[in-house]
């Protein structure tokens, strides 16, 4: 492999960031009975599952995972969801992705819920790159990372977590 990869976060650091995000979500929603953790596939869902696992151990409320698959290449919203969006009515939804770059993915994620009266919609990302083309902000971010546009951030999440890493290339 000739490409140079710089390790930004290792397994332990990723876990610390996800733990902190989970505690921030708990603090923001301590009076709720249930929240929905919406993970954007293919990597946001892995982070969402990890956040949910932590919340299940520390929070007095129930948390439920829901998955969202978006066509990120489309110029309009094309989403596949594994739930009835109307079941989200009057609930708190946490929209989770791995990296916030331009904001397009989160904007499309918001679009899934546009016709549903939510109690609250928050966003959580592991890495916020600060290259927004869309007016997206993160409520919960593991790390803000200023990069040049031609650099790429890779989030590698292993099922067992031992090979986790965030790399800059």
From TrEMBL:
Example of a GO MF term: glycosyltransferase activity
Source organism per UniProt: Mucilaginibacter frigoritolerans
A Pfam family of this chain: Pribosyltran
Sequence ranges assigned to domain Phosphoribosyltransferase in this UniProt record: 8-138
Keyword Cytoplasm in record: no
Gene3D superfamilies (alphabetical): 3.40.50.2020
Keyword Transferase appears in the UniProt entry: yes
UniProt entry keywords in alphabetical sequence: Glycosyltransferase, Transferase
Protein name as catalogued: Pyrimidine operon attenuation protein/uracil phosphoribosyltransferase
Entry superkingdom: Bacteria
InterPro entries per UniProt: PRTase-like, PRTase_dom, PyrR_bifunctional
